[in-house]
Design goal:
This protein is mostly beta strands. Helices cover about 0% and strands about 65% of the residues. The protein has a nine-stranded antiparallel β-sheet, with no helix packed on it. The protein is globular.
Length: about 170
């Protein structure tokens, strides 16, 4: 359980922090073209002496469209800028691109890349994250996914392979 005395961004027990977003679709009459805009302003915690407000912006533009009657694609590009991460003098910028392909509404393939720049006092770090996954929807709430993730974060390379089988129940 988080207490006020633990500090941390937005841990103020008041309404000093907020986030807003705006989404839209079919921009300029283009079927499947959508956008998402976001803004966050998070107050420093009440016990965080010398911390600054965390302020962030996000903007995304995507397009969903059928390629054929059986194949659809959804492309997305997103930019995020977060200043004073966790109240410290750290600024992060992210650029993410992704492509999702669906086949016959049962198969899916996703490719995604994120470039992240972290600016701190005395350091400038560039991270790279790549992910590919595929899956199948068996219907009636059961899906299976398998994926691979490769990342270079703060000079450390990691590679992960994972899988997921999920079933949803309605009640």
């Amino acid at each position: 359980e988080l207490d006020k005395s633990d500090g941390g961004i937005s841990n103020t027990e008041s309404f000093e922090s907020f986030a807003i977003s705006l989404d839209g679709e079919n921009i300029a009459g283009v079927e499947g073209l959508y956008y998402k805009l976001g803004y966050q302003n998070q107050a420093e915690g009440d016990v965080d002496i010398g911390a600054d407000r965390q302020v962030g912006y996000a903007a995304a533009l995507g397009h969903t469209m059928p390629v054929t009657s059986y194949v659809g694609v959804d492309g997305l590009i997103e930019f995020v800028d977060i200043n004073n991460v966790d109240g410290a003098n750290i600024n992060n910028q992210y650029i993410t691109t992704s492509l999702i392909t669906t086949i016959d509404n049962t198969w899916n393939l996703t490719l995604s890349y994120t470039g992240r720049n972290i600016d701190t006092v005395g350091a400038d770090i560039d991270d790279h994250l790549f992910q590919i996954s595929g899956g199948y929807d068996f219907g009636q709430g059961t899906t299976a996914q398998i994926g691979y993730r490769s990342a270079e974060e703060s000079g450390t390379d990691t590679n992960i392979i994972g899988g997921l089988v999920r079933h949803s129940f309605e009640f």
